[in-house]
Amino acid sequence: MQTLRQLSWFFRAYWKRYVIGISVLFVIDVLMLWPPKLIGDTVDSIRNSSLTDADLTQTVVILLVLGVSLYGLRFLWRYLLNGGALILERTLRERLFAHLTRMTPSFFHRKRSGDLMAVATNDIPAIEQTASTGVLTLVDALFMTVLTLGVMVTAIDWKLTLAALIPMPFLAWSTAYYGKLLHDRFYLAQEAFGEMNDHVQQSVSGVRVLRAFVQEKADIEAYRRVSEKTLERNVSVSRIDALFEPTIAIIIGFSFLIGLGYGTYLVFTSAISLGDLVAFNLYLGLLIWPMFAFGWLVNVLQRGGASHKRFTELMVEQPDVTEAANPVTSQIANTVEARHFSFTYPGTDKPALTDISFRLGEGETLGIVGRTGSGKSTLCRALLHQYQMKEQVLLIGGIPIEGLAFDTLREKIGYVPQEHLLFSRTIAENVAFGKPQATTEEVMHALELAEMKRDLAQFREGLQTMVGEKGVTLSGGQKQRISIARALLMDAGILILDDSLSAVDARTEESILRHLRQERADKTTIITAHRLSAVQHAQLILVLDEGRIVEQGTHDELMHRNGWYAEQYRRQQMEHDVAG
What we know:
Helix content is about 65%, strand content about 10%. With about 575 residues, the protein is of the alpha/beta class. It folds into 2 domains: about 5-315, ABC transporter type 1, transmembrane domain (ABC transporter transmembrane region fold, Up-down Bundle), CATH 1.20.1560; about 335-580, P-loop containing nucleotide triphosphate hydrolases (Rossmann fold), CATH 3.40.50. The strands form 2 sheets. The protein has a 6-stranded mixed beta sheet, sandwiched between helices. Strands 2-1-4-5 form a 4-stranded antiparallel beta sheet, with helices on one face. Strand 9 and strand 10 form a beta hairpin. Helix 3 (about 15-30) packs antiparallel against helix 5, helix 3 packs parallel to helix 7 and helix 8 packs antiparallel against helix 11 (about 215-270). Keywords: ATP-binding, Cell membrane, Membrane, Nucleotide-binding, Transmembrane, Transmembrane helix, Transport.
């Protein structure tokens, strides 16, 4: 019942649909009480030899009319209640999707993709079942039980009714006991399903690596273990699920046995008529559904409760970064400044960045270089405000980033990450992802700036070529250039290229950088790179080592100091000359 209470916000929002549906159910239950009485009276009329053709015809017509009426009313309640539950399912999916899009990277570090998919594919339908089947069985079983018992007590015999109900306390105890077991086991089964989803997602995403290291058999074996664990937990759920129906059937069978035995005695003692006994057994038959429904209700509610718990645990998660109460939404300058900025990733003790300070004016380029793990990408993510940090240390347009509206910040910054994610859409749709209204000419211009235009000739369908899941049909360099074109099309005031030229050759890199300097003369660009030729034109170059700035200046200044930058640049030039 707690799950239904937790869904009360939905029932209140669609109260008309549920009130009408429940009212129709009540009418159906009332009409269902009429046929047993008619049949009992007909049996008594036959026994007394008082049944006429007109009486029989009238009874048959009434039963036919009732059948047609019940058919239409049952269609109506199914449309109202099940339709309402489908609206709930859609609403929960929309809330889940919106919630996931608001979460910061740390959330996705904690949560496995398989668990998130399991909530969307398994848990939300289980909650939907609670709002449809659960409401139906609860209301219908209560109405039918109360109405049927009322008729049995008043119209047949209260002693016979009471005797037939003797086994019912055992039903209440067994359903409560099985329900507790079912809730716990179903929760564990859903967790195992999430693990299996996560394994499949990782295996499909990393299929090239699996094949490269000849680990297909090992991965299949690992999946077999995960799937067996999922199977075992679902079988344990099924064992409890399978006990519901036989237990209820046995208890109901005892009720029929008592009713038939004691009822026969009452007929022989003339306490009730034969027709009353027939009607009583028909009414007792009507109670079969409510008894099964109560067991089914416990099953549905326990499954729905376990799923709602998992859904709620996910939805109560809050993003690490929150928008300011009164954020700045106006246009801001294309300047970037760091004031003694330090940052430590959540859950770690070692600082990723320490005492970073620089200022970048409009139209200038910042180059960030250093060894792997020196903090280059961390600084880029910090500028995107992906993590919570100290106030007044990172400024965009002279305004601390924590004071900017999220939309304003994201519209101001174009970002090309190291991991180039392309969607399973056409090249044109991938490039125009951030600007869906872009014309074909604008898309082609962005591809030309990214040195991708000539590659289109390799594709039979040109811009309309489907790139496949995560750009599987493209080379690494093509994926990088499409990602760059996507960012260039947005024409953001600040562009961040996080090692986004690593998969292209030196000549293509030089062409792309030349286009950037021409097209973005009045805009700000930040480039992180391992190949120093990508940043030698920058007005300011930062050399990071273990999260600290160890060198900074222009290319000429850093070469004159003869430090790490100069040594690395000369080595790369020698390698280029040898390769050339």
